[in-house]
């Protein structure tokens, strides 16, 4: 997969997610119960955090160094508990950290994180995208595939949950 294809897949999937968020509307973004007690805002903050983290990892790999917490989270240190490799614990820690942030801050942060991510992808070349060793995330998956897991596959994974919640919230679903 070349850079143009990676960018198109990521941007197309994110545009679909953004359209869904418009359907939800800001007035409902802080209602609990989307997934367990998570809100749409919690899910958007989760996506924001992973977009920003992925951009930081890509930039650091391109420059041959470790990403800093400032790049990864915009903070001097990771949010408490977010530096674990246990994804459930990491997701819970990120949710806890961002839960009290104002909705406008999360929406703006998500837009900024997407810009950082697109810029990081644009800075890569096709050889880096095809190289499993570039990111050291997997021995077999290419960088493009790893980006896909963090972007279009991640966005698409949240879509059915959001749609099911919208149907329940509107009294149209089980």
The CATH superfamily label reads: dinb family like domain
Looking at CATH, which topology would you report?
Four Helix Bundle (Hemerythrin (Met), subunit A)
pLDDT < 50 runs, ≥5 residues = none
Extended strand count: 0
Shape: globular
Q: Pairing-aware structural class of the strands and helices? A: mainly alpha
If helices are DSSP runs of H or I spanning 4 or more residues, what is the number of helices?
9
Mean pLDDT: 94
Residue share in β-strands: under 5%
Helices and strands, in order, run as: HHHHHHHHH
As for the number of domains, it is: 1
- CATH architecture type: Up-down Bundle
> Which percent range fits the helix content?
55-70%
Q: CATH first level: which class?
A: Mainly Alpha
Radius of gyration: 16 Å
The termini sit apart by: 40 Å
User: Biggest β-sheet: count, sense, barrel?
Assistant: none
Summarize the structure.
This protein has 174 residues and is mainly α. 67% of the residues lie in helices and 0% in strands.
């Amino acid at each position: 997969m070349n850079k143009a294809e990676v960018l198109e897949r990521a941007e197309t999937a994110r545009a679909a997610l953004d359209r869904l968020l418009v359907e939800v509307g800001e007035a409902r973004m802080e209602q609990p119960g989307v997934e367990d007690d998570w809100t749409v805002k919690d899910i958007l903050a989760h996506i924001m955090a992973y977009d920003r983290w992925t951009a930081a990892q890509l930039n650091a790999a391109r420059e041959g160094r470790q990403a800093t917490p400032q790049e990864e989270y915009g903070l001097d240190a990771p949010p408490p508990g977010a530096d674990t490799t246990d994804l459930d614990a990491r997701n819970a820690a990120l949710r806890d950290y961002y839960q009290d942030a104002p909705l406008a801050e999360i929406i703006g942060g998500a837009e900024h994180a997407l810009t950082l991510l697109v810029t990081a992808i644009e800075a890569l070349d096709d050889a880096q995208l095809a190289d499993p060793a570039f990111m050291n995330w997997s021995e077999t998956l290419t960088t493009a595939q790893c980006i896909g897991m963090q972007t279009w596959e991640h966005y698409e994974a949240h879509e059915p949950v959001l749609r099911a919640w919208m149907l329940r919230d509107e009294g149209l679903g089980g």
